[in-house]
Amino acid sequence: GGHLLGSKVTAEVAAVRGVPVGSDALSPCRYYDVLEPHDMKRMVAFLRDVTDYKVPILFKLGPSRPYQDITACVEAGADAISIDGLVGGTGASPAVVTQGVGIPTLALIPPAVQALKDLGVHRKVKLFVLGGMRNGLDAYKAMAMGADGVGFGAAAEIAMGCRACMACATGKCAYGITAQDPKLRARLIPEEAGDRLANFIRATAEEVKILTMLSGHSDIKELCEEDLRAMDPNVAGITGLKLMGYEKKMPWWENG
Asked: Which of 129, 137, 146, 194 has its CA at a distance of 20 to 30 angstroms from the CA of residue 111?
């Protein structure tokens, strides 16, 4: 769930969230009309109906059981799924959550991709990976491991001027990005921040292009695990990638 502190609930935010100015805005961690997998399927059908079947349905997960979670989303009728790893989370999350809850992004990708393959929908149901993606190299690795794309959170904010001071929850961001104080918000020039963000996206795309060409491919859709090698046994064991210097996967991966 979410907890937006009252100090961040300005008149503008209050109007959107439907709560009094200055009061905490709470979002439930669960919805009581979606308790079981079949409830999700019913909700997907409802959303398709109200959008006249013109809008793709995307599930966003902070998964604990990647294989089972992805399977449930596919069976519910998802068109796309995004998974957010351990590095993900909002700047307003409690430290004990951001530092100690979740599964590292690297460990999420293999079981998520395997679930899609086992269900026969890999590349049909799109998989997007988030959580600690910093640049084109991270995007390249994720896509070579089977993801269809990646998303950027903190990296995009840093491109806009964020210095990762972790003051998001206070509403007093010195750079105006997550601030609710009008004086601080005035420090963020949207046009300049937009230009920097656009430059970051262009540079990221260029890095992916370079790495794709160096791998002998002309299209990112051709990227695969054979384009990667793990540099140590732990990474090989987590990802199932071949260890540098070996032509076979590590025995413990093959044996499950």
From this structure: 137
pTM of the model: 0.87
**Do 144 and 162 touch, CB atoms closer than 8 A?**
no
Contacts 24+ apart (CB under 8 A), 179-187: 180/7, 180/8, 180/9, 180/10, 180/13
Pairing of strands 126-130, 149-150: parallel
pLDDT of residue 217: 97
Name the CA dihedral angle for 211, 217, 218, 221, rounded to a multiple of 10 degrees. -90
Residue 78 and residue 209 in contact, taking contact as beta carbons nearer than 8 Å: no
121 contacts 112 by C-beta, under 8 angstroms = no
- Give the model confidence (pLDDT) of 55-77 as tens digits: 999 999 887 899 999 999 999 99
Query: What whole-number distance in Å separates Cα of residue 256 and Cα of residue 251?
Result: 9
Left, alpha or beta for 22 (phi > 0: left; psi -120 to 50: alpha)?
left
The per-residue pLDDT of the chain, averaged, comes to: 90
